[in-house]
Amino acid sequence: MASSNSFKLRCSIPGHEMDVRGLAAAVFPEGAFVSVSRDRTGRVWVPNSSPDNGFTEMHCMTGHSNFVSCVCVIAPNDTYPRGLIATGGNDNNICVFTLDKPQPLYTLQGHKNTVCTLSSGKFGTLLSGSWDTTAKVWLNEKCMMTLQGHTAAVWAVIILPEQGLMLSGSADKTIKLWKAGRCEKTFTGHEDCVRGLAVISNTEFFSCSNDTSIRRWLVTGECVQVYYSHTNYIYSLAVFPNGQDFISTGEDRTLRIWRKGECCQTIRLPAQSVWCCCILPNGDIAVGASDGIIRIFTEAEDRMASAQDLQAFEDELSKATIDPKTGDLGDIKLEDLPGREHLDEPGNRDGQTRLIKDGEKVEAYQWSVGDGRWMKIGDVVGGSNQQTSKSVVYEGKEYDYVFTIDVNEGGPSMKLPYNVTDDPWLTAHNFLQKNDLSPMFLDQVANFIIENTKGHVVGPAQPSGGDPFTGEALLLDSSLSNAGKGAYSSAAQRQTSTNIYFPKTDGVTFEQANAPQIIAKLKELNEGAPQGQRLSEETMESLESLLLVVYGANSPEPPPSLQQINLLWKVCHWPEDIVFPVLDILRLAVRHPQVNESLCGEAEGVQLCNHLLSLMRPEGRPANQLLALRTLCNCFSGRHGRALLMSQRETVLSRAADLAAVCNKNIHIALATLLLNYAGCLHSQPDLEAKAQCLSVASRALETVQDKEAIFRLLVALGTTVASDQTAQDLARSLGVSSQISKYSTVSEPLKVGECCRLVLKELH
Q: Which residues form the PUL domain (predicted)?
């Protein structure tokens, strides 16, 4: 390969005091990038005009009380035309910075453990992943939704460019695809923690893992290619603008460049852990490592470092010491190794390593295709055949052991050096203090040292994965509806000649009923009921008179008595196979002010809610599911019912959303109506988390609902949720609502579906 196609060092930036854990290309200034480090800072670097093609620190950001572990750039908007910078840390917080102040503009709190990955999307959406096993979606300083489903740390997240799709990768070895807050698909194939994700296109992505592989996936679930070249954990990935070629970094001290599916160049670094990488707008590569240095590599000859600096980098690499216990070089037997003459033979591929013995020393070399020669990459110490002590060099000192410790369900790898003459308890104590880790790990770390140093002899390397700390682990007025369809009505009038559909702020109820038919069915079922469940004549008469009172909207009958209401509540617990006519009476009764107050009040309301939710479980009877949904809708007709349902919103909507999968158009209409009533109550409120749930449930329902009346009500619910609320509109866009509903914009039968859809789309554009 011609040298112009090989990447070489451009410059080294010794800008941090500890490991560089995250990098991201900045929007402003041109050519700039951001770095974050375990030294608790973030820094913005801009290219300078000096002959060495270096970078100058433009801005330093502080605000985290512990290590900073990840960074991403939030795209510019009218308020922040230079964009914003988000950083996540071991203090469980996300800090968001402008480019002109060292302190955070604001801090996002909500995760219960280290925030280790961030990704930004359109309209200011931010996605975070944490060791607390969750991912969270943020917008305008608020957590919109929490993505729950992984069983171990979430190490990687990305937002796909279209359709509101999000991905998360975890120490539980899986990748999950999320849409509108719901897990749509789980990708399995990796055999260890998933550490990095990168977007290829709207329909494809890469993942990398501790299992040393990189995988290429379709969002539909298929793994279309697996790439092998790394010899240890792979921590990060970045894709070139062509969407095909990419780079990767890992614990094997390398940056690898991949073209046309092959690893075409391996650049070894004088640092054990190459934590992160990013591709700059001009095609140069930035990498951050455990030695606190950022290195920039370029294939543009006019930006390459001078011959003197390239030689200095090579010299630094040649002086590195390689611990074979990492497994990078395989098992080493000194007597089997060739001598220096072995370097006269050219290598087969870029990055190929070759070990030679020089007297009693073992040296490692790597083949460079670009230069056509073997480059020394270090001295190998502590081979598995060597039983001498002081065999591993760490930070310039020799130790009997250097353990790799992964803390807290796949937490960041940390090095623990140890000599057999040291006190394991004191060593464990110092290790925890140095790394700001909880003292609760003291026994665990000390016992691990003791267990792995029995006999005081340096033995063979632990097999990969043998370390117990690895991440395996720790609506509408009736004139708008088809006549009578859906059996609901509303007293509202058309609002304006341009938008008669939303916002819809008064409750939509299910009024229609055939009282004689309900009573006849109740009597029929009562006669066939088991002896112990049969209702007395007196009870039947009481229910019949109650129905007559609540059925007629302008009934001259006296209001229901407390005794009648209590009796209705009791009979609602009839066996599930015969209770539905009682639920129909309840559905009509909760519209009455006194019943609404009595059954939805503070004392009884939660019991009513829980009982209806139990009838709505997915495996329940469709008739009961339908009537429970309609009863909840009708509860909105009274002040006490509205208060009850708003207080129970999260639980009610979560259970109701599951019924979108039931193939029943009447259930779908009732579900859409319930959502619409919630949207109406939330319209004038700044409760973004609640609106986020409404948008999420509507989006999920639209994937399965076919009935046009149900679709219409879902569209009105969406319109009501986003009307006059810029943040809700941004969230709807980020969830891909526009693309999801656009197909309804041309519906002409009924006309209201197409009209309402076009108005919602107009609101979102």
A: 500-763
- Two tokens at 510? 């299910």
Average pLDDT, the chain: 85
DSSP secondary structure letters along 175-210: EEEEETTEEEEEE---SS-EEEEEE-SSSEEEEEET
Grouping H, G, I as helix, E, B as strand and the rest as coil, residue 520 is helix
Q: β-strands 55-61, 42-47: how paired? A: antiparallel
Residue 506 neighbours by CB under 8 Å, 6+ apart: 490, 491, 492, 680
Residue 753's contacts (CB-CB under 8 Å, 6 or more residues apart) are 708, 711, 712, 715, 744, 747
Q: What is the DSSP string of 520-551?
A: HHHHHHHHHS-GGGPPPHHHHHHHHHHHHHHH
Domain boundaries, the chain: 17-148, 305-397, 400-452, 515-764
Token pair 């058309």: residue: 494
pTM to 2 decimals?
Answer: 0.64
For residue 588, give the 3-state DSSP assignment: helix
CA distance 506 to 681: 8
Q: Do the two domains 17-148 and 400-452 of this chain adopt the same fold? A: no
Q: What tokens were used for 764?
A: 């979102």
**C-beta of residue 60 within 8 angstroms of C-beta of residue 23:** no
Instruction: Quickly name the fold that domain 17-148 has.
Output: Methylamine Dehydrogenase; Chain H (2.130.10)
Gap between the Cα atoms of 271 and 102, Å rounded: 29
Instruction: Kindly state the percentage of the chain with pLDDT values over 70.
Output: 86
pLDDT score at 332 = 56
Class of domain 515-764 as given by CATH? mainly alpha
- Summary count for the chain: helices (H), strands (E): 18, 38
Q: Give the strand pairing for 213-218 and 204-209.
A: antiparallel
